[in-house]
Amino acid sequence: MRLPIIFILLTVMIDAMGIGLIIPVMPDLIQELGGGTLAEAAIWGGILSTTFAVMQFLFGPVMGGLSDRFGRRPVLLLALLVMAMDYVVMAVAGSIWLLLLGRVVGGITAATQSTASAYMADISAPHERAARFGLVGAAFGAGFVLGPLLGGFLAEYGTRAPFWLAAGLAAGNALFGWIVLKETVTPERQRAFSWRRANPLGALRSLGRLPGVTPLLLVYFIYYVGFAVYPAVWSYFGKERFDWSPATIGLSLALFGVTMAIIQGGLIRPVLRAFGERGTVIVGHAFSIVSLIGIAMITSGFWVLVLTPLAAMGGIIPPALQGIMSARVADDAQGELQGALTSASALAMMLSPLVMTYTFAQFTDADAPVYLPGAPFLLAACLSTLGLAALVAFTRRTD
Prior knowledge:
- By secondary structure, this protein is mainly alpha-helical.
- It has helices at 2-20, 22-34, 38-70, 72-91, 96-110, 113-122, 129-154, 161-180, 195-198, 200-208, 213-227, 229-242, 246-297, 301-312, 317-326, 334-364, 375-398.
């Protein structure tokens, strides 16, 4: 049991690295390929991030549905092999359009987070799922740490170096999974594949028919729209406001990711015991709102780094929400649930980069009416407040 769990956590971590690796080098890489100002590079960065998220949105429920029909093992291993080849393509990309193509394929392969979460649900008792989903979140946090850290460090050897390392990691993990991963979808648990359910909007509609899931899914979606401000604009924000180098940007994101991994992998258990799943979601929102406002207004890079652990406390929100929703769904629909959640988060991260990078560009351009690089973080704070209000209103009606 332990080795398959390690494989699942490594898979999620490598998926997260696909986002984190590119963040520190993104401003320099885009300007290297297409030129332009930092504000223009931010807009292109939003397009690339949105493309990645669009593919996750479209293929999250497809991967979840395929894994319910054919098993988790073949879906996970094939995606890792394709991911390795995709990183090689991005490592040699000579134009922004080839990099865009790489983001298309990368988004499809990273959509296996739904299958990884479904595998975790398969091997966990109902009362263990929230904590196990916390481990999945911690693995994502670890990828969010290692990606920017390695991306910033390897930027010293060129903007392409991080992708070669990522290709090796994906291929190596595929080999590891081929050796240790056992199939959990037995013949009696197989579910016929349906394009209606695999359609991302169809997956969300089917969840909408489950009692009490739709409002929680809305809260989950709003959280990720606000959370996406970090991968969307952090590198541009750090370079504009504090003149940070790629290495410093990588270190700052690593600090955020380390704290999030600690919180989701360890602190979430006592928090869940103390506040319950609903209370944990409320506490996480409170920390998010305060920290986002602070990041937006503080002009010292040092104090922004000091505030980072507070910002990471918002990471307790998704696993607690997943635990609540998972308890409302039948065992044979866990893959469908996780696929729909992947689509919800991908839809949020499809919308958010365009909105956040456009907001950043509007408030940092030479013609900006007000110079405020932290404007996207203020917008994210407003969204977190909206999500908290939606949660409180829904739970007040159902309590």
